[in-house]
Amino acid sequence: MLPKYKRILLKLSGESLMGDKNFGMDSAVITQYAQSIKSIVELGVQVAIVIGGGNIYRGMNEAETGIERAHGDYMGMLATVINGMALQAGLEKAGVYTRLQSAIKMEQIAEPYIRRRAIRHLEKGRVVIFGAGTGNPYFTTDTAGSLRAIEINADVILKGTRVDGIYTADPEKDPTATKYDTITFQECLSKNLRVMDMTAFTLCMENNLPIIVFDMNRPGNLKRVVTGDHVGTIVNG
Ligand code: UDP
């Protein structure tokens, strides 16, 4: 089976790691994600990953946490490193070679983010996990995903979510909502469909980086996406 994409960036939310739990991570989810990722590495796809931190800490809500926004955001970035390490452990257990690179220096546990080095790892078939988001407060891990995808010249950004694509309305609230197979960046804007936050979305749009939103929790889906099956919703053009 020939993959459609040579190099991808997979964006996973921190919350997805929780599975049915209320906090932290579920080892069954990590094992399933590791197997899914392994299946596309075996096809020869170069895989980079950005993972969120929302299952551990979200900095944005100063009113709720009582912690100043920028300070909380740094805490959120550290949470993404913990998730990155968990995913790294799961992947290595599955026999996949990995490197974790952090946007905030933590030399004992991760390489510093170095773009050319990340590309070299990818060329050697290693999965590269980018931790600590962009390294800057006031950004999200979606933005980190878009930014890193563009930097490494990924063919596409794959946003793994709980829903299987972009709908006319929130399918968890509106039963009449229907799914788009494809949609343009402009249509998303005019219909006010929030695929990612604006900073992340704009980066993709301005750099012609297609986004595929798909359900990562269904085993086999990731492989279907990279082999060109029509899974989820693709945003391009
Ligand atoms: N964060 C940040 N800069 C970044 C990426 C993340 O400040 O470049 C912080 C921000 O506080 C965010 C938290 O890290 O709330 C966790 O990331 P995010 O909420 O994007 O994770 P997800 O929703 O994907 O689990």
UniProtKB/TrEMBL annotation:
Record-linked Gene3D superfamilies: Acetylglutamate kinase-like
Assigned keywords, A-Z: ATP-binding, Cytoplasm, Kinase, Nucleotide-binding, Pyrimidine biosynthesis, Transferase
Keyword Nucleotide-binding: yes
Coiled-coil intervals, chain numbering: none
Keyword Repressor among record annotations: no
Pathway(s): Pyrimidine metabolism; CTP biosynthesis via de novo pathway; UDP from UMP (UMPK route): step 1/1
Sample GO molecular function, one term: ATP binding
Subunit and interaction comment: Homohexamer.
Matches recorded under NCBIfam families: pyrH_bact
UniProt-recorded name of the protein: Uridylate kinase
